[in-house]
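Help: read this over?
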Amino acid sequence: MFQIEKNLATPKQPRLVFQYARSEADIRAVQKLRWRVFAEEMGACLNSPEPGLDIDRFDALCDHLLARDTRTNEVVGTYRILNANQAEKAGGFYSDTEFDLTRLSHLRDRVMEVGRACVHPDYRSGATIAVLWSGLADYIKSHQVQYLMGCASISMIDGGYAAANIYRQLADNHLAPIEWRVFPKCALPLERLEVAGLVKAEVPPLIKAYLRVGAYVCGEPAWDPDFNTADVYGSPLLTPFYEAIGCRKITVILRKIL
């Protein structure tokens, strides 16, 4: 399993490091955090074999990036990474369960998928995301990845109106070239969710951050009934993405957005 750890701390922040899960205990800590955020906080209906842990069939094959507070040893943030070799063993990327990715078939051997991103409520700051992004940058460099892809979720607590509005905003300026378009298997009914005069919804901060480093939105969102979210599929080109997320630039970007 890929192993690395580094730290990024400031005098006013807890000492945080990024690591990759190196033991079953690390993976369970990640799954416990995901359960807390997705099930307890967001109300997702997780079909997990063990209550209190967010577990699915991809976990055993993935690399798990985590942010750890070294003062308490607590896992406070995570991303799940599925590279091309792991996806082949899994029978596809997680995103294949939500989207038809046929038009991206020629990129599969150069892709790394990220997902299941979450941060402990007490650590939701630019510093924690910066630590995690530093980990992503090192993984990208070490594995010579060219494309980063994955689903970014938008809450549907209002029935999907804000999600539809946000997608329209993203599509205006950030839609991928047509040859990179993907198609949702369970589409959000965008036309039904159009409301005249609806106040422009706020794009989630993490999606803003992805856009700032060159992400594309690859098509209309899919509805994820378990999480009750609208998922948009994004694909930042990784050469500019990697160059953009050196530690100093991460901090500047996130201070402007979060």
Summary: Residues 77 and 124 are 9 Å apart (CA to CA). Residues 24-41 form the longest helix (18 residues).
